[in-house]
Amino acid sequence: MTSAEELYERTAELDALQSGLARARSGRGQVIVAMGPAGIGKTRLLTEAGRMAAADCDVAVARADSLHQHLPFAVMRQLLQPLVTQLSASQRQCRMSPAASRALQDVTDSAALPQAEEGVTESLLALTFELCKDKPLVFVVDDLQWADTASVKFLFHLLPLIERQRCCVIAALDDNDEDAPALLNTITADRRCHLLRLSSLGPQTIATIVEASSACSGSPPPDPSFLHACHSATAGNPLFLGELLRLLAREQAAPSADTVARLAPVNAQTVQDRVRTALEQLPKDSGSLTRAAAALGPSPSLAQAARLADMPLDAAQQAMEELRRADRILDPTPGGDVRFVHPLVHAAVYDAVPADESSAAHGRAAALLRADGQPEEAAVHLLRTLPGGGFETVHRLLQAAELAWARGSPEAATVYLRRCVAEPPDEEQRASILYDLGRSCLLNDAAAAADDLDQAYTAATHARPRAEAALALGEALLMQQRSQEAMEVWQHALAEVAEDTSLFQQIQACVLSLPLYDPSQPTLRRATLRQIAEVRSRATRFPPGGTALDCVVAGHDAVLGDPRAVSRALHALHGPSCDELADLPGGEVALALGWLVLISGDQDAVLASLDRALAHAHRTESLTSEAITLTYRAMAGLAHGNLAQAETDAQQAASAAQAASASLLRNVLSPVWADTLLERGLLEQAETALACAQAEPAPVTDLTYHVQCSRARLLRLGGHTDQALEAALAAGQSFTAAGGTNPALLPWMSEAAWCLHALGRTDEALDLAYEELRQARNWSAPRAWGRALRTLGLLQTSAADGLKYLDAAVLRLQPSPARLEYAKALADYAAALAAAGRQTEASQATAEALTLAQRCAAPALTGQIRSGRPADPTTEPVWAAGHG
């Protein structure tokens, strides 16, 4: 007999799955997500995917559920434990590194706290990659919308790496679930995630299923009006169609449009009504067992359900048989679990229980699980109890939050802490819990953190806890570009803290950093610069607050073009308190300025600091920290000419920043990402990256002068020279108004100069170029200095003068880490040598430039070198005429 649950109209989806599996087998893995409403056939499709992969792949299957949505790595436990269990001791030793073994233990062993030095997600990724070395690995995850956030974060980090692995993730997602982790939206919106949007069944398929059903058995072929009514009543949903056909068969009604109209519509509510009716007709023991099982999850063991229902096991087994004979409630397949046939059926049973009875059931379940040595499982049940449990509930939830932190799931800790607040705790404990809640939120969601930290700040009764809450609150506000509110909070806190403390200097560093993050307030900037002069001369530093101050002072000095900023930032970022600062609220606000100084100063040492910070972000499982660190690592990659890594970092930083509600980063990250794409010749993608900053051509506020300068370059390369000049000058005006005199931070003058030259205004271009050279020489870092020399060389009217400046640019850049800028200088130098008739030297310089451009993964520059065109300008210099 044909079933409504068979695979119909899924040829394209099956082809996509076959393709994804083939990619995984060849080491080019993929994430595939099937999306659609409940009952559309996602589970059936996943079952087929597992069957297709089973012949030559290791297949791991997991099903998320709403009860365990806040159990750290609940889905990853389901996936990885069976895979590792089936390995022999020798296979484990060969295929699993010590770090990978620790990672699995860290997420599964409730008897011990995690021991891994790496982040749990990072270690689980390493374990996954080790498991797929010998055989392709396929993860099949159903009901992804209910996955715990830690497992979703694992998927988020796997997504950019899977393309180089023999691994495939095939998941099903109900796109109508409002409680799904927000990070899922970031994953499904990523171009690397292949979406399969499952459509409803068409009329012809509906007709095939209906004609083969028992509802039409022995009847004449159904007329078109009946078939149309079946399609309309169920919206082509396979699950609901099956429900309709069972209703018709049970009523033994004639298959007519009128009969269907009486039953329509058939949807999730229909399923719930049918289940509730069936429950009312069951014997008492069967009903008790069903409700107990529903409280425990979608497929608890019969023994667990019997204990919760306070039934002898033999009585439970008899009740189970009654349930299996009931109308589509439990899976009829024999086994030791109480398995509901569909999540909608499980939800119908669970929702039918009054809130107070459900709360009591979860309370008993928590007690039973604690007695069995499963404190984490017990904690998820406490979340389902009604508030009012008192001290004991708060104590248990705080323990669960601490364990979730250690397991690498601050998001789960956030849920437990928020439930603690609702309990409620006593007033003094409440302030502490609110602070921990806000700090936990700040790691991954700045918007949510601000509300909690504001309450913690208000609830704190002593000066130091209030100041600590203010420090974290200000960071959350700044990340959302609410700089004025952040300033007010920090200034109030500063007035309450003793000056001879690290905490005071940390808050002061945050206050003094604001003009650098929001340079649109000249009055604030002038006041800040007066304080900077005083702080710069102060000898006493209290780490780690003093380290934060040094980073901020260095940031201000860099904007002014003072080269002493580099040594100050080097001292700060390589001091013993730097890593400690990363653990504190507001620490990365200061650290980012130190990184900016070292990047603009062409210091290789910044890479080690960034790598340490990224490792810290992974250990703390913080998307906010990851977004900040990857933004500046992308900036460093661009400055050094490592374009492939810069693009990867920028894309991952953008995803992390979006998920963490860190909108402040958009104006820093977007131009870095866009400039990287421009170096690779990807103008359309660069335009998309700039759009993320939501910057308009005018007026320029906040940090958008970086965006404007990048936009100027995009417009110039696109042939819109007039608009490019306008954008470059607007960027320069804004930067200058903010005190900026350092072309290493914003090379707006050379950008404007190239536009002016293209418009025939070379004299004005030369004025800007000479001023940029003066400022770059004052800053003394090779990349900015070499760029300024190269710009002047291209603006000269004689080949001899051009050669002089370009020769100086090559000499300045040759020993520097700025490989891309050095390649450009070599390319233009080669053109000048050719114009001077020095062909042998020109050929050597061209060859070296070409090699460097290819190493930098800069195809646009490679093409320009091969064609003999200038590396950056859109118009050739006068001296190059006839030598292209």
From TrEMBL:
SUPFAM superfamilies: P-loop containing nucleoside triphosphate hydrolases, TPR-like. The keyword ATP-binding applies. Residues 6-170 form the Orc1-like AAA ATPase domain. Residues 863-884 are annotated as: Disordered. GO terms for cellular component: cytoplasm. It holds the Pfam family AAA_16. Gene3D superfamilies: P-loop containing nucleotide triphosphate hydrolases, Tetratricopeptide repeat domain. GO terms for molecular function: adenylate cyclase activity; ATP binding. Keywords: ATP-binding, Nucleotide-binding. This is AAA family ATPase. It comes from Streptomyces sp. NBC_00180.
